[in-house]
Amino acid sequence: MNMLLKRAGTMNPWLSLPLVQGWQQLPPTLWSAQAPQLSPVRHLGDVSPAALRLLQLDARQVRTDAASVETLRALHSGERLLPGMAPLAQKYAGHQHGIFNPMLGDGRALLLGEVAMPLGRLDLYLKGGGRTPFSRNGDGRLGLRAALREYLASHALYGLGIATSLPLSLCVHQARVLRTRLEPAATLLRLAPSHVRIGHFEWLHYRRDPQALSALVASLGHCYGETPAADAETFFRHTVLRCAQLVAAWQVWGFVHGTLNTDNLSVLGITLDHGTCAFMEQYQPSLAPAHDDTGGRYAFAAQPQAVAFGLRVLAQCLAPLVPLPRLQALLDGFDSQVENVILCGMRSRLGLMMSRPEDASLVAGWLVLLHRHGADYTRAFRVLMSWGDNPAADAAFARALGFAPEAILPAQWLASYRQRLQQESSTERERQRFMAGVNPVYVLREQYLQRVVDAAEEGDFQPLASLRRCLTQPFQKIDACEFND
Fold first, then answer.
1. Which of 263, 273, 376, 394 is catalytic?
2. Model's pTM, two decimal places?
3. Which residue intervals of 161-209 are DSSP H helices?
């Protein structure tokens, strides 16, 4: 049985967290009380300074004070809870690869509590804490490789300024789990303003419960700064806009979520559940990293359509509260919103500070260029950043992208780019400095992840901390980083 930590002193920073129980005020059909299952911790692998700042906790104290470290390990192991915690598993449904499934919910994650911070609440979730009433045939545990992928991908997204849940800490446990192979079990403590998904609304729509739908919408008002709570139409407008901004950011930065089932889609436009994700290395629009996505439903190029499908499902769920034509009118602008945000982001990555009608064609040509030889998506922008307006630079640019120096396609695109730059008021040096601020040095590469996994399985977490530090400061090369190319 879990035991509450006693308030034995004032030095332990975890005891200062202002915990509330907002989710318990919602209809019980949306949750089930569930304590974490005991699983002894072998290693406290990493603690995130960025996440600690969100909780206004001192990173040095949290990571060095013995009582603080012990408390964190106890939360991961399921041995103890903080005063005010009443853990629960959330219930939802969802469309998985387009097929509705009402038998879903938090199968390996628990909401330990909500932290009432000055700028809004933050969910504190334990992922990998054991079976819940919604685990079905799962063991409720999390493998180390998936935990490390989500931990590092979340920090990479955070460093790029993309909305995401953010893991606070990662622990490796004594237990082992069988995934594709036997590997150590792990847990994440994860922060997000809310974990409400489209699937929550699908569950209530399936149950024909409009009162619970209204209550769930009202509970999200604080996330939008709405006082009093937003009505369903305003809520849907916010959701469409935030989801458009999110998926556009994924496309700009080459992030592939991997599993965009509606039970993984946040109604706040936050990246959730990215344990199968990847950052695109070679430019490959058909990249679909999840092993079960054999048809490419959630491939990189298909992500806007997948999110649009989820929003159509959400509109159907909200129809008892708002006439569907009004919701559809809001959804009709989704595609153009995505396209506009993508164009704005790509314009910046190409070093263009002004808007011109030909920019969409220039961006499309750039992507054709990268696709033709499978150029490295991240490095290609850095190559362009260093390009100078001279024949030698043109040849070096072509070689760096995998073309022969005399190839026609890169020469044609560079001619268009050169002409477009003449319409800018910035100098070459100013363009290069601008591009250095929006084109990362570091992204989460598979070879980097493998090095971290190999080290972590041997009990060495220095590579994890090093890569996390680089990913949260992605635009400047860190000389001491062991992941410099």
1. 263
2. 0.95
3. 198-206
